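Structure representation:
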Amino acid sequence: MSIIRRRALGALVLGAVLAGALPAQAQTFPDRPVKIIVPQPPGGGFDTVARIVADRLQPLLGQAVIVENKPGAGTLVGTDLASKAAPDGYTLLLGGVSNMAFNVGLYPKLSYDPVRDFTPVAMVVSWPYMLIARKDLPQNSFKELIDFVRANPGKLNYASAGRGTGQHLASAVLGHLARLDMVHVPYSGAQPAYQDLLGGRIDLFFDNSSTALPQVKGEKVKAFAVSTARRYGPTPELPSVKETGVADMDMDSWFGLFAPRATPQPVLERLRAEMAKVRADSSVVEVFAKSGGAMSTMSPAEAEAFARAEAEHWGKLIRDAGVTAE
C-alpha cells in the first residue's frame, strides 16, 4: 500500500473514531465541573445572574458549577476567552445585551462574533433601564424634561458607568432617536455615578431598573420613564419612552447562558433541559421578581432568533448614533 493510501486510510479511521467519541462523550456529560465565565467583576448584574443560575444548576447536573469572573476591556476579555474554549459544554458564558449585541456596534473589529461563535443555552431574565434624576431637578414629568432639554441644548448632563456601558447607550440612543443634546459624564461604575447623582452634582442617569428601583422607592431620586416598550411592574405609574411618542425605543438589559457554537447537540440538549428546570424554579422566579426582573420563557429556537436579531438591531443603531467605546 502506498504512503498516500495509508495516510488517507488513517485519516478515515481517525475521523470515524472522533465521530463515535462525540456521542459517547455527550452521554457521560458532565463528568467534571462546569465553568460559567462572567465577563464582568463580582457584584454586578452579570455576576448576580450567573451565581443564581450556577447555584440551581449544580444539583441538577450532579457536578460543581463554578462562576469564573474574567473582567477586562468592558466585556471583551471574558467573552473572547469563552469563544475560544473547547466546545464540550464544560465552559459556558453568561451573555448579556452588552457583550452579545452592543459590542457589535461599539467596536469596528471584535475578536469574537456573538452569532457565529455562540449558541444560546437559555435566555434567563431581563430588566428595563429607568431614567432617573437628582431629586431637586425642577422637571416633574418626562414631557417636561424633554421639552426643557430641547429648549436648552447642552444644559443637562447624564451619568453612565463608563463609555459603552448599558447606561451610556440608553441615554445616547434616546438622545439620537429624540434628537436631544445632553452632556455625557462617564464614571468608573454605577456606584460613583450614584454618589454624584444623590449629591445633586449630576442631572440624569438611565440605569438598570434593578439598581435604580431602591433609590426611587426610597425617594432619593426622581423617576421619569423606562426603556422598554412595556411599563415596568414595580413602577406602573412610569410611562415607557415609546408610549410617550418621544422615541421608538425598546431596550432591555437581558441575560442568558451561552455555549460555544460547535458544542455537541446531546450536550446542549442536556444543558437546555436542566436550564428549563432552573427557570421554572419558584425560588429563582421569586429572587428575580423582587427587583422586577422578567423571567424568559423563550425556546432554544426563539432564543437563537432573538440573539441574532439583537446583534443586528443594536449593531446598526449604535453605529448610526455614532457611539463608540473609545
Q: What stands out?
A: The CA atoms of residues 26 and 267 lie 5 Å apart. The chain has two domains: 33-126+252-321, 128-244. Residues 33-126+252-321 form a domain with the D-Maltodextrin-Binding Protein; domain 2 fold (CATH 3.40.190.150). DSSP finds twelve helices and ten strands in the chain.
